[in-house]
């Protein structure tokens, strides 16, 4: 049924720390690795070794820059509370689970109309040309409840593999969970809040730059960048005279 | 957005077919008659156009054999509502068609419609309008495509369906030896309404939505994409990042003005001064070229907000 649940008992999701992510792609690769054989597998690749390879991935790392900094930006399904991809589905193949809020696709009833991918502002859904159905992040539903795995492994593949500790998993519906506290503390935010999708996943902003401190330290040892760099003696002299 | 040929054909042709149904219905309900054989012929053509459009729309599905499942989620999904509306509408239209097929030779003698046919025609005409509306709402309901997320989308679909339907009906009237000039006036009203609505739609498209790379990422400052997540195009870029038409959008828009509004204006004006029937056919042919261009632009020019993650600065 593509009506969204009024509320979900839990809001399982990810918190991604943009201050820590180094853009190493380990999460995207481990995601592909696990989910290739998981709930929504295979993640079909077309002409993987040809000149124009293409394939389904649940998680992709974009890199943005500002005048100040470079930010690596992993993006996967945000398991929105008001998921537009669910309500547009004409068949009921797309659904949000009442028990934990995970948004999934039933590959047996999906007709591959692609409308859900049009409805998602975040590009979280990718069409599998080979199988003719829509694929998306399952929040590793086949790991997080899996009794065959050690308890510390019962987290999404992207979280378990992140070498920098930039990805966190838990219940964002419980205001007292470690995850909710982390979000409150660091000012975690929603992507494109103007779309009204109420994403469960949150992003933690990069911490304010502390470059001024570093510059102070450099100045103290006479190595601060004074704007003349490694100019010659005469140029430095001119600069000093004109600066006065 | 990628302009899929099957969906462009579907929206234009089903709009034309439903428009024809409505004008044929109005003509018959006001006790007018097409010459012998043309009544049922025109209705057959209208239903064939609608049916071909619906079949075409299933061609882009990954699993067309599961299409029947799309009738189940009408509570939330406009696509599902459209499927239900189209099928329900076929019931009165089919009965009307059947009745005309069986009684056509006598129709001229007893007036255009029997009481029963009147009921079928009115229900079918209401269904036609509802179906065109549900089609337009599939697009208008998508907030992630700001260009479509406006009242001008359903209004444009409804008016263009009535407009193409009327000019199609006038072409049939011209071919059948009738006088299309008597209804040319309505064509001019629809032409004006269509022009105004499309201008407002394009104004809305140009205004943008206010979503930016900064709101998409939450990163403060002048954010730009430094490096994409993959070197080759993926599904998202092929489906949502279509850019070819935007390059030629202004030229295509001139084509829409010329073929969908300019030429039909001249032919409608000529017809209201009793021009020959073939002028109605020429006006209709030009309009169809213009409407196909309009529909191609509708898809190709629409920007999806996901492009903000792939280098677009605003959507």
Automatic annotation (TrEMBL), chain A:
Residues forming coiled coils: none
Pfam families assigned to the protein according to its UniProt record, in alphabetical order: Fer4_11
Alphabetical keyword list: 4Fe-4S, Iron, Iron-sulfur, Metal-binding
Keyword Disulfide bond among UniProt keywords: no
Domain 4Fe-4S ferredoxin-type: 12-31, 68-99, 101-130
PROSITE patterns named in the record: 4FE4S_FER_1, 4FE4S_FER_2
Signal peptide, first to last residue: none
Gene3D superfamilies found in the cross-reference section: 3.30.70.20
Molecular functions (GO terms): 4 iron, 4 sulfur cluster binding; metal ion binding
Domain of life: Bacteria
Full protein name: Fe-S-cluster-containing dehydrogenase component
Species per Swiss-Prot/TrEMBL record: Rubricella aquisinus
From TrEMBL, chain B:
Lineage summary: Bacteria, Pseudomonadati, Pseudomonadota, Alphaproteobacteria, Rhodobacterales
Organism annotation: Rubricella aquisinus
Name this protein carries in UniProt: DMSO reductase anchor subunit
GO biological process: anaerobic electron transport chain
Record key words, sorted: Membrane, Transmembrane, Transmembrane helix
Segments traversing the membrane: 7-29, 41-62, 83-100, 120-142, 154-177, 183-201, 252-269, 275-293
Coiled coil: none
GO molecular function: dimethyl sulfoxide reductase activity
The keyword Membrane appears for this protein: yes
Any one of the GO CC terms: plasma membrane
Tagged with keyword tRNA processing: no
């Amino acid at each position: 049924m593509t009506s969204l649940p009024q509320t979900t008992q839990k809001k399982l999701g990810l918190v991604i720390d943009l201050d820590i992510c180094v853009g190493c792609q380990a999460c995207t690769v481990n995601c592909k690795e696990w989910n290739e054989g998981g709930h929504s597998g295979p993640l079909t690749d077309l002409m993987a070794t040809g000149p124009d390879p293409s394939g389904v991935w649940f998680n992709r790392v974009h890199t943005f820059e500002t005048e100040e900094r470079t930010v690596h930006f992993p993006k996967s399904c945000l398991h929105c509370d008001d998921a537009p991809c669910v309500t547009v589905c004409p068949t009921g193949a797309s659904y949000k689970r009442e028990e934990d809020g995970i948004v999934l696709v039933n590959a047996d009833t999906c007709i591959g109309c692609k409308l859900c991918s049009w409805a998602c502002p975040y590009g979280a859904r990718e069409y599998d040309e080979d199988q003719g159905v829509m694929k998306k992040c399952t929040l590793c539903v086949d790991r997080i409840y899996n009794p065959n795995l050690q308890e510390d492994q019962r987290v999404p593949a992207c979280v378990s593999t992140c070498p920098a500790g930039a990805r966190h998993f838990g219940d964002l519906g419980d205001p007292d969970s470690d995850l909710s506290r982390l979000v409150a503390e660091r000012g975690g935010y929603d992507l494109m809040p103007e779309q009204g999708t109420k994403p469960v996943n949150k992003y933690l902003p990069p911490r304010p730059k502390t470059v001024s401190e570093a510059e102070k330290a450099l100045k103290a040892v006479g190595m601060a960048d004074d704007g003349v760099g490694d100019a010659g003696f005469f140029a430095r002299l001119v600069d000093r005279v004109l600066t006065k | 957005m990628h302009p899929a040929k099957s969906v462009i054909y579907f929206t234009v042709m089903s709009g034309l077919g439903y428009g024809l149904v409505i004008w044929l219905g109005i003509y018959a309900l006001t006790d007018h008659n097409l010459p012998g054989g043309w009544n049922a012929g025109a209705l057959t053509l209208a239903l064939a156009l609608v049916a071909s459009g619906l079949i075409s729309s299933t061609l882009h599905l990954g699993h067309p054999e599961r299409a029947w499942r799309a009738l189940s989620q009408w509570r939330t999904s406009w696509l599902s509502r459209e499927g239900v509306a189209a099928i329900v509408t076929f019931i009165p239209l089919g009965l009307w068609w059947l009745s005309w097929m069986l009684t056509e030779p006598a129709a001229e003698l007893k007036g255009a419609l029997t009481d029963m046919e009147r009921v079928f025609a009115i229900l079918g005409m209401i269904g036609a309008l509802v179906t065109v509306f549900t089609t337009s709402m599939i697009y208008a309901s998508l907030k992630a495509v700001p260009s479509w997320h406006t009242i001008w989308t359903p209004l444009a679909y409804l008016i263009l369906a009535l407009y193409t339907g009327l000019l199609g009906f006038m072409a049939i009237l011209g071919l059948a030896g009738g006088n299309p000039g008597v209804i040319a006036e309505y064509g001019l009203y629809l032409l004006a309404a269509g022009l105004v609505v499309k201008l407002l739609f394009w104004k809305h498209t140009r205004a943008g939505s206010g979503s930016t790379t900064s709101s998409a990422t939450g990163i403060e400052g002048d954010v730009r994409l430094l490096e994409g997540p993959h070197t080759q195009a993926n599904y998202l870029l092929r489906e949502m990042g279509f850019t070819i038409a935007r390059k030629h959008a202004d030229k295509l828009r001139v084509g829409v003005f010329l073929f969908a509004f300019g030429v039909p204006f001249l032919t409608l004006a000529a017809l209201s001064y009793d021009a020959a029937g073939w002028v109605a056919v020429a006006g209709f042919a030009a309009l169809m070229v213009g409407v196909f261009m309009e529909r191609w632009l509708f898809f190709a020019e629409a920007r999806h907000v996901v492009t903000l993650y792939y280098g677009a600065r605003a959507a």
